[in-house]
Amino acid sequence: xxxxxxxxxxxxxxxxxxxxxxxxxxxxxxxxxxxxxxxxxxxxxxxxxxxxxxxxxxxxxxxxxxxxxxxxxxxxxxxxxxxxxxxxxxxxxxxxxxxxxxxxxxxxxxxxxxxxxxxxxxxxxxxxxxxxxxxxxxxxxxxxxxxxxxxxxxxxxx
Length: 158
Hints:
By secondary structure, the protein is of the alpha+beta class. It has helices at residues 12-25, 29-58, 67-73, 88-95, 99-113; strands spanning 64-66, 85-87, 131-138, 141-148, 151-157. It is elongated. The protein starts with 11 loop residues before the first helix and ends with a strand. Mean pLDDT is 77; it is low at 119-128.
């Protein structure tokens, strides 16, 4: 595979840590930097995807559906006592999964939903500062959920 030269700035502490690790392992510092990029770039992309999705929902730029309506559309009968909205992009992602994986993802969404504190008649309390992050594998797909206050953002990636 062809390579490119990239120059960037980092702290002296990070450079020293890379240099020490390279020396201890007998690898080049370039090898270590590439391992870091290979290992964490996908996670960083998904983190930004979650932030972008959350902001789109909060700003009203993306249509949402209740988790319960999504579950019913796919034949999953799960009870819901809070109203979690699922974005249009997540609905499309669910449409693209096979039935078995989709069923597991929707079931996991309901399990995670139960972490959100319930307030009678309003669903989720105003000003709630709950923060929950879930990052796991479901049938070879990476399932990420980030709950920040009253917004739950889901992402499923192959």
